[in-house]
């Protein structure tokens, strides 16, 4: 299945996400257009929401924080992240983040 929000890269995957800061809890909402919507329990100031996003993805995907790079959208709610982990595939990421069968 083609996932526009998650695409393969050599040695990892690229994620397109849309975040909503100041949520009551951090959670994945679902796919919105061509991005994965994630609510974050963090303020959108001084990079706190970006840090919370990287921490959440690191924990959920079982990769070190250093393997996650925020490549676009540092100050925008839409962001592109590259995750360096050869074992990750788009289907595997969807299974971990959305609870879908891989």
UniProtKB/TrEMBL annotation:
What is any one of the record's Gene Ontology cellular component terms? cytoplasm
Pfam families, per database record: DUF167 (PF02594)
Q: Gene3D superfamilies in the record, alphabetically?
A: YggU-like (3.30.1200.10)
Q: Where are the transmembrane segments?
A: none
The UniProt similarity line reads: Belongs to the UPF0235 family.
This protein is called UPF0235 protein H3H36_14690
What is the species listed in this Swiss-Prot or TrEMBL entry?
Answer: Rugamonas fusca
């Amino acid at each position: 299945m083609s996932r526009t929000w998650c695409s393969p890269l050599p040695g990892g995957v690229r994620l397109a996400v849309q975040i909503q800061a100041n949520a009551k809890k951090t959670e994945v909402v679902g796919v919105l257009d061509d991005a994965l919507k994630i609510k974050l329990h963090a303020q959108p100031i001084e990079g706190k929401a970006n840090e919370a996003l990287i921490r959440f993805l690191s924990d959920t995907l079982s990769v070190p924080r250093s393997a996650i790079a925020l490549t676009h959208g540092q100050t925008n709610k839409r962001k592109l992240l590259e995750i360096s982990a050869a074992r990750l595939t788009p289907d595997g990421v969807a299974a971990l983040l959305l609870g879908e069968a891989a």
